[in-house]
Amino acid sequence: MPCLFTLLVCSSSSSLTRHEPDHTSLLRSRRRRPRPPLAVPPPQFSSPSRRALVRRHAGCVGVSLAQIASARLFFPDIASPPFLPAAAHSSDHKSGTFLHDSGSHISMGREKLRKQRSGRLIETLKMERVRTILTHRYPYPHEHSRHLMIAVFAIWLFFVSSDNLQTLIMKLDKNFKWWSILSNRAIQILVVGKQPLESVRRYIAWIFLAALYHLPSFQSMGLDLRMNLSLFLTIYISSLIFLIVFHVIFLGLWYLGLVSRMAEKKPEMLTIIQNCAVISIACCVLYSHCGNKTITRDKSIDRRTASWVAFSLWKKHDDNSLISKLLRMHKFKEQICSSWFAPVGSASDYPLLSKWAIYEELASNGSGHSNDISPVYSLWATFIGLYIANYVVERSTGWALTHPLTMSEYEKLKKQLKPDFEDMVPWYSGTSTDLFKTVFDLMVSVTLFVGRFDMRMMQAAMNKTPDESKSSDLFYDHLDGKDELWFDFIADTGDGGNSTYAVARLLAQPSLAIKSDGSRQTFPRGQLLLIGGDLAYPNPSSFSYERRFFCPFEYALQPPAWYKPEHIALEKPELPLGVSELRKYRGPQCFMIPGNHDWFDGLHTFMRYICHKSWLGGWFLPQKRSYFALKLPNGWWVFGLDQALHGDIDVYQFKFFAELCQQKVGESDSVILITHEPNWLLDWYWGDKTGTNVEYLIREYLKGRCKLRMAGDLHHYMRHSFIESKEPVHVQHLLVNGCGGAFLHPTHVFENFREFYGNKYETKIAYPSYDDSSKIALGNILKFRRKNWQFDVIGGFVYFVLVFSMFPQCDSFRILREDSWADRVNSFFTAMWNVVFEILEHSYVSLAGVVTLLMVSFFFVPTKLSRRRRALLGFLHAVAHLTSAVILMLLMELAIEICIRNNLLATSGYHTLYEWYRKVESEHFPDPTGLRTRLEQWTLGLYPACIKYLMSAFDIPEVMAVTRSTICRKGIESLPRGGAIIYYVCVFLYFWVLSTPVVSLVFGSYLYICINWFHIHFDEAFSSLRIANYKAFTRFHIKKNGDLEVFTFAVDKVPKDWMLDPDWDMEPKEPFQMSYTRKFPSKWRAASGSDPTNAVRIVDHFVIPRTPPDSPTSGSAS
What we know:
By secondary structure, the protein is an alpha/beta fold. The radius of gyration is 36 Å and the shape is globular. It comes from Oryza nivara.
């Protein structure tokens, strides 16, 4: 029995029907509080009865020791089950018992205790993993084919040295280029490259192999891939039909009550398809290197012989060159094929199955010279038998099957070891429903509600007191009585989970020790957190708020034990038990304003999750409305303004803040104004003027008391300070900090900002710097497709539409008839012009695509430029895409034409591969018993028809060649509608793969040129890069003397991998302890690289002095 291939496939799971997920990332050291020892120790077996008991246990769960051992071949970290012999256990389990805690652990050192607890958890996880292997519930999709491909590729590399190395060496100069390109691509697709979608990898592998076997280089090496491909497709469709019939029969037996109730769960079709592919690949590899005949074995190869054979290959000979040693490997290979991969036997050994078997090559139709069963067939039957046996056992009763680790339990266990953060929002995705919903919500909000309905008016109408300046819903003074106060500001959170958590982790620390000016300074946690809008991206939904905003903050600082996510706060503030009023609460609090993304649904989600909930993780939420006023110690105020989608405040909001300035804000008080949009930068950039109500409030009511304006919206950090002059200063400092977790925005496009409200300002700090910002933009050329692979869906389709009507180019070969390369290049460009003119004169579909592309390109250019420049830039952008599409179309047509003229693609019919295989099938896989004929009769011709049309569907290049020749000879009208559809679908499958890298390169280059040369597309050019790094928050300190000291802390690189923080895990926890009282409040820390708490640095520091009571309100800054 071919046991090596059995191990190869079965080792990736205990059966072919499932795959255990990779636990490497889960088996991380975790420290837990001591647990009591096991009440009942596990049974221990004496040596005489051990093996019998092992067999009995293995039979109960339907798995043999060989299968468990094979599973450990691919998963060496799997612990041996408790019923295995003691030798199979790790050193900690030699006695057959588990580690457990005892009283002596109390006296152990802390580090030693951590290691023992971590080891115990890892062993527990390993045992749970073995239990999961034995159950029918699998929380993750099937992936074992990737492991198999790696193993098969390694075996292929070994065997190819004996079969083709000599040919390769003799023809190295001729074939080196082909082999280098194809080998690298094969490794990238099948082994190394991790594609975003499993289906994309399969699709590329399919069309790649379909074109591969037509290339002449393989034929010159003596390699004919037709046999392997046809054998693979035959075995694949046969296995698929066989397993589908088996599952239908099995479900029928379950319906009749003849099998276990657990058989009700239907298998996933994808799992069956992958299993069939794995079986087919293994059979093809066996046939490629060992053939379909029994090799006479004079002497079996045992361990000692194998060692001698392997050693003899490398001992000194007359010719001791490395190549000569490699060429002698064929002897070793023959020994392996004859011993390790020997077939199960002859037909005489299995008389009942003799009519249902395929025989080896030496058997002829009629009176055979040999009745040995085909080794390929025996391997296939072995795999099918394993599949059926394991599937039936899995659906049978037994303790291991009725007491599995359920999916919910497994997910809970996994979440304890690694956070489940969301990735950065794919803004250029052509398949994201969130983005389509965002566009729809924005259109509805702008079209229907702007100017007609405003939630801010509804909030004003719901106010309980007529005098809004005295309303407890909008005005808060509970922090006024403190001597000093630390508070923080962030904005634009809820994009990527890693970046948002990195900022939240820093905010949650009881203190941060940061090196500054050669010494380490300690900064306590802010008692107040201010968030400047855009809480979650891309749209305000329950999913985005919960997963992208609340989840990272809850990991950073856990909510109270009594907190329920579904709870709705009716009367706020809902103070914790034992706190009589808000002024006496000592924990951190949070206030926030909505941004434009929070307004896409009319502020519904913001009101639900912020104004009617009491906790953002461990931060208390007293806020009741979308705007607020906070009175802080020593004459400082914070005004949080809600600008909605208008970029300005409404009249009711203006009335509240104006009355507050008149009645409560003192003449020497200082105000910090928070808005979402930094209109001082955006108005300068767009040449517009917004926020007139805010400007009027600052100029006529605050009258120089606004010392600082803060905003988000732009995802970077910049600060501008006024230049002293004789003119009255309305605002001293302008600060933008949108580094709370969203993708990065550039800074260099705002480099020339100088003036606001008639005052002169200078740039004090830009993070990242202007130079770094312009360098980051280069990623649009280099990384656009890797960062936005879903954009391929749109880009490839657009390119195909542009040249759809130009397929086929029947006279394309005339380009190569020219004598010199210069003439060929000229002829190629002439063909390009002819294609463009033909699109404009005769095409309908392609012409519509070109016109649409021109219009979209024009409107895509920002209105910052003049209309003439927009038209020119949009036209050049569209022409670049059209030119690229035409060039790709001509190159593809030339490649097909060359293959046809060199007889690499047949044009006589659609079934060339199938007809060739039928001719050689009887020679290599003889059928003396007439099994194929009987199958054809019983299936009413379905058996050969499925294989025939599957081969035709696989061989896309030949389908294109045949249809193309028909169109060129008789015209497109000669084809039926179905034939034309098939042709264009085949063309699209290849053209899409060729065009997607090009469209990404052209579009990325356009964004790079625009952002660095014209300073436009700052949003589009950086959202494409999805940069999670360069995160920052601002921490304020109101000193006892009334000065406001401002620090901005930044982390240049955000970790991508997290692990359970051992300090958090080891810290004792009380049942109702508030998380802000803990020394280590955050659950996760960086698994590799520097943790944010260690990498944080100060990027900006300035002080705003308090205004003396008898001095002008303009003041100065230092």
